[in-house]
Amino acid sequence: MKNILITGGSSGIGLAISDLLIKEGQYRVVSLSRSREKIDRALSEKPWLENKVDFFTGDVSQPEDCRRLCDYIQKKYRVLHGLVNNAGMLTAGGILDIDYELWKKNLDINLNAPYLLTQTLIPLLKASGNASVVNISSIASRMPGRSVAYSVSKAGIDMLTEFLAGELGPYNIRVNAVSPGLVETHLHLDSKVIATEEKFRKMLEKSAAKYPIGRIGKPEDIANTVHFLLSERSSWITGSILRVDGGTSVFNEILPRKKE
């Protein structure tokens, strides 16, 4: 059995990853969330995960919470085979809209926290003898989106991924990133980037036209790729940033998708 830690594991992509790994039957999952409310919502959506996923509450951007989590894993599991840095936040707007405190909060959650948590957990990752770290990035790292803070933080995640792959490779720790396009999760509503469910659905419907495959992403699309990167099937892959975006990053408005 492999021990996997997933941050932001109680909603969206993180919850889908937890669900997939538990169904695979070869993993023990520790899921880190910032609030008990999100854990309760996750269990209402996927009640079969109760008593199967080890839910843990804490703020991954706080050093003391990272140490507390590390101590918990050390005592209960002794080693960590995989880490998925998935927790994130999104604040819409550019430099004229986002004040410095909100800018720092975005970078703390999206970039500083993966750095801090990975650094804290290196001894447990080393102890596994063959560990995999998967960072959840975004196509916004290369294609400016609705948020300067989000885009910049995800660009930082890409470079962090490449740097750590080179630094931690000698310890048999692989580091890769998955770069999703738009995925249907709670992120936009939880972050209040979009005010209502109705507006969110309209945004999804409108956005689908810019995806050559004809639809936006599902959390399961990202979970499948993360599972691959955690597994031995990707044992010679490190430092990669895999686009899982339905082709939107190569969308060509001059040659729109044909409709039958």
How would you portray this structure in words?
This protein is of the alpha/beta class and 260 residues long. It has one domain (2-185, 218-243): NAD(P)-binding Rossmann-like Domain (Rossmann fold), CATH 3.40.50. It is 44% helix and 15% strand. It is built from eight helices and seven strands. It has helices at residues 12-24, 36-45, 63-76, 100-128, 148-168, 187-190, 197-207, 219-230; strands at 2-7, 27-33, 53-57, 82-85, 131-136, 173-180, 241-244. The chain has a seven-stranded parallel beta sheet with strand order 3-2-1-4-5-6-7, with helices on both faces. Strand 2 (27-33), helix 2 (36-45) and strand 3 (53-57) form a beta-alpha-beta unit. Helix 1 packs across helix 8 and helix 3 (63-76) runs parallel beside helix 4. It is globular, with a radius of gyration of 18 Å. The mean pLDDT is 94.
Tell me briefly what this model is.
The chain has 260 residues and is of the alpha/beta class. It has a single domain, classed as NAD(P)-binding Rossmann-like Domain (Rossmann fold), CATH 3.40.50.
* Count of discrete structural domains: 1
The fourth-level CATH homologous superfamily is NAD(P)-binding Rossmann-like Domain
CATH level-two architecture: 3-Layer(aba) Sandwich
CATH topology: Rossmann fold
How much strand? 15-25%
Which CATH first-tier class would you pick? Alpha Beta
By DSSP, the count of extended strands is: 7
Outline the low-pLDDT stretches. none
Taken in chain order, the helices and strands follow as EHEHEHEHEHEHHHE
Q: Assign an overall shape.
A: globular
Main sheet? 7 strands, parallel
